[in-house]
Design brief:
It is a single chain. It contains 11 helices and 12 strands. It is of the alpha/beta class. Helix content is about 45%, strand content about 25%. The strands form 4 sheets. Strands 4-3-5-12-6 form a 5-stranded mixed β-sheet, sandwiched between helices.
């Protein structure tokens, strides 16, 4: 059994059970990937994948167990390389981060600008994902850490540490009637058309849950995946919106009114997600410290060791 065989089955799963896409990622041919799978299935004495008309469609029960170990072994082999690189190339490498648009644009970008002054030879790759996608990419080892809100379910192999609070605010067109309210209530906001996040996003669900719990049913006329679009829609007079305060820049967002929403919506946090037992390069800890100064290297290492 070789690492290349393990990588083949991991890539097939990561690419939606497409052997063709897995072959592209591995820079090889489809028959070569199929042969690697056949070899490992032969060694195990059972099938890893369920097939329908020669197409792979899902993992077998055996495959579910194998994929966990295969990912762990590949991650451990990567960690060995990282340990050597940390010793001999401390300021050079590639850092993969899974996150959402808002956290990348408004939190990671300023941190990366400072980070680059010290680590000019570290390349960064940002992967835009949903909360569940962020965790999946960290778990598979494709990304060294994730940043965003948490999905409803997580593997025990994921460590989630609070990075910073997420506060929300209400944005409206300039001169909107809500700007004249001395103390905003949910009932006031619900009177107007909303432009909001998609409800698959944690931010969208949290906002709409607050309205529902208050017995309110505001009309959402536009749903979109990122704050930049929502701010543009509000500036165009299409409605009002509730977004994270971190997505606002007072200098650039002078074409909209920004109203406090404290107490109207539940407090939430952005989380740093890591794979338990993984090895992080020194520059990874340094970037994390720029994003979440409250998280020390010792705190992170202790959390990843804890069962």
């Amino acid at each position: 059994m070789t690492l290349q065989q393990l990588r083949a089955i991991c890539e097939i799963v990561a690419n939606g059970f497409s052997v063709t896409r897995a072959a592209d990622v591995m820079c090889t041919t489809q028959p070569a990937v199929s042969k690697l799978v056949a070899l490992i299935e032969g060694e195990l004495g059972g099938e890893i994948f369920v097939r329908s008309r020669s197409r792979i469609i899902e993992l077998t029960e055996l495959g579910e167990e194998v994929i966990v170990l295969a990912r762990r072994m590949l991650n451990d082999s990567t960690a060995l390389g990282d340990i050597a690189a940390e010793r001999f190339q401390q300021t050079k490498g590639v850092l993969h981060i899974a996150t959402s648009h808002a956290h990348a644009r408004y939190v990671l970008l300023p941190a990366i600008k400072v980070f680059r002054k010290t680590y000019e030879e570290v390349d960064l790759v940002l992967k835009q994902q949903t909360p569940s996608g962020i965790v999946a990419m960290v778990l598979s080892g494709e990304c060294q850490f994730g940043l965003g809100t948490l999905p409803t379910r997580m593997s025990d192999d994921i460590v989630a540490l609070p990075a910073y609070p997420i506060e929300r605010c209400i944005i409206t067109p300039l001169g909107h009637p809500l700007t004249k309210c001395k103390k905003l209530k949910l009932e006031d906001v619900a009177r107007y058309p909303l432009v909001g996040y998609e409800q698959v996003a944690a931010a969208g669900r949290a906002v709409m849950d607050s309205f529902r719990q208050a017995g309110l049913r505001p009309r959402t006329i536009i749903r979109a995946p990122d704050a930049d679009f929502l701010k543009g829609a509000v500036a165009a007079g299409l409605g009002v919106s509730i977004i994270q305060s971190t997505a606002l820049d007072p200098d650039q967002d002078s074409n909209i009114a920004i109203l406090p929403a404290r107490g109207l919506f539940p407090a939430t946090s952005a989380y740093l997600t890591l794979r338990r037992g993984s090895f992080l390069r020194g520059y990874t800890y340094d970037l994390i410290s720029l994003i979440a100064p409250s998280l020390s290297r010792a705190d992170i290492q202790e959390a990843m060791r804890r069962n």
